[in-house]
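pasting input
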Amino acid sequence: MESSEEHRHIVGYGQLAVVLALLLALTGVTVAVSYIDLGFLNVPAALTIATLKAALVLLFFMHLRYEGPIIRYGFITTVMFLAIMIGFTFWDVAFR
Amino acid sequence: MTTAQSYLEHSSPPGRRGWKAWLLTHDHKRLGLMYLWAILFWFVLAVLLGLLMRTELMGAGRTIMGAETYSSMFTLHGVIMIFFFGIPAIPAIFGNFFLPIQLGADDVFFPRLNLLSWYLFMFGGGFAIFSLFFGDGFPDTGWTFYVPFSISSAGNVSLTVTAAFILGMSSMLTGLNFVTTFHRLRHKGMGLMKIPLFTWSLYATAWVQILATPVIAITFVLVVLERLLAIGLFEPDRGGDPLLYQHLFWMYSHPAVYIIILPAMGVISEIIPVFSRKAIFGYKGIVYSSLAIAIAGSLVWAHHMYTSGMSDVSVFVFSLLTFLVAVPSAVKVFSWVSTMYRGSIAMSPPFFLSLCFIYLFTVGGLTGLVLGAAGTDIHVHDTHFVVAHFHFVMLGGTGFAFFAALHYWWPKMFGVLYRNRPAYVGAVAAAVGFVFHFVPMLILGMQGMPRRYYDYLPQYETGNFLAGFGAYLLVFGLLLMLLNLVLSLRGRRTAPANPWGGTTLEWTVPSPPPVENFTATPEIKDFPYDFSEIVANSKK
Amino acid sequence: MMASTSDTTGIRIGMWIFLYSEIILFGGLFVLYAVYLYEYSELFAQGGKELNRIIGSLNTVVLLASSCTVAASITAIQRGKKGQAMACLAVSIFCGLVFVVNKYFEWGAKIHHDIYPNSATLQDGEPGLNIFFGLYYVITGLHGLHVIIGMVLLTTSLVLVHRGRITASRYAVLENSGLYWHLVDLIWIFVFPLFYLVL
């Protein structure tokens, strides 16, 4: 606990560049997909790509891959709470 | 450092004197005391506001105030009791003071952030006072700030919700501090199942504070924006849905109920075993039920909205989920009662107040089932029944637990003993007054008397008179207990390190504790509620 | 940032917890967005077409790049390369500035076309459009505020790196500012498709 700086994983420049390239590619994909009408899949498609991008930022730029269980489970709890906030509101909205 | 130096005499960081030693302190114990005085001020103020309302209602017709004043009164009473007393009281005072000690740490993880939380609390309070005397007058919306009235009301709603926003930040940062402290500063020898139950309950609460508070923050931001810019996000003729405001509001404010009650349950879990001289029954059950309440409490918000025009499916689902919360709450009540069974009971003011808690909280919980069931709720919705129900939980529960905590930890915090007799008299008066106050309100509610009116039909007069009588007795009891405690500071009957025979770490250090909490490495027991040593010593 | 302790993991835990609360803060607005998208899906699509996709895409690229350079600045400081770290931070701050300037022109153009909260066009138009643009202003406004706060944090870090207060052995402030900046990016990753690309 008192260790001033435990050995930390260093993410190399090359790896960061690859992640950025992937993020930019996914941005291109999401813009391209938006021109195609997928019917009711429009929103899920856009959100899936956004989630992929978010995952890349979280795992590599924010080092979530290398963090301990507290930060990881805390994050999962947050996302679940957000899902409940939106999902449970639809018990009302979707059945009016 | 060889001799223990009391935190009251030595500042942290060292060398600060006078007001600086308090206002710039990093010491979690001093911050706890600073919260104590600020919160007591708000509590007494709101109690007196409540008494004025009850006085108005003692006779039919206008007694001492009119409709508008009454509306402002219940708004202020609600806002203060929820945001300035209920939510911060136990975590900010006793949590700040005892969480680090119970974990074997010398302070919270972010001491300066802790000081910032206190300043935010005071700043929010200043803002609230400011909003009363400047601008367009008292807010009159009730503490719920429902749209569309909160957007069109002439009262000074914007400033009041801003004050609540700031208090929310304070509460959220306290939660952040507790979680980090819990994980990073806990004594190395203290495994998860060796942590005192009060600290466990604060940990569960802290997560609710962290995750639910931002929802009310953004909701209040939207209220202010609507008042300033008229966006129309909640206005039906502009495409908005006013029910969504209620969803957002209760997404926080229902979990907030658990922010208020969970630490209170933690206090009771500390006190019951100590005065039963017996290990707590179902330690793990209590730990898991705290976490379960925190989780389940976040799933049930819409049970405040059965009559608001939600879909029937939603009413059904939220009603079902609401009943789930009863399970972990009942686990706790049964554990407390089982702990006392065949224990060696030593009566004392904190224990007596804890017994009051169990009784009143149980009534609150059971009346909650009446409201949680959609069918019966429609009959009593927005009546005095609801008001009585949440006072059983909030005042009968958290309020009595707050006083129990005060009486339990006062000797440790200040190093002085108080007189028992006035404490008992006050506690009995408060409990009897409470029953006289709120049982008639349950009946009035079932008879159909709506809440939030300064006047009523003649047939409700007897009940309201009784409730008013109970209110005076209740307030007498509460103030007597506070007075007795404050006077003990003059009496200077010094308290020993362990006046009650407690087993958690705060009782192993001198009263009042030294600045750095522990002068020697604390010894962590395998089980925090092991009374074998205490019992053996008392038999000698 | 507020702790004098050397336990950097603890400091990061504190920062992450703060970020969780930020996520939920925006989450409240996304609840509104989800419900109104469900109620007014066609009008939301119509509103989305009125937003400038090119500026939106450009801002996405700018933010993603700045996020990458912030991450790179941490790599640099971990390796003890002060100059590289400062350069990376400067690029990030510049990207933030580009984003804010773009946003300024974007909002300005909309306001010029009489589209802003309580404007006559929105008042008299379809209610769904009023909600779409209402949410657009609230969410991008709150996000813009976070961009500005993030720039302040990054600038502070830059100054501290320059003064040698952030070093290879002690960089919690930089790390936490970086986390905040990534959060701003994270929110935008969702705002962009939800407003500019709804279909």
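fyi Chain B is about 70% helix and 0% strand.
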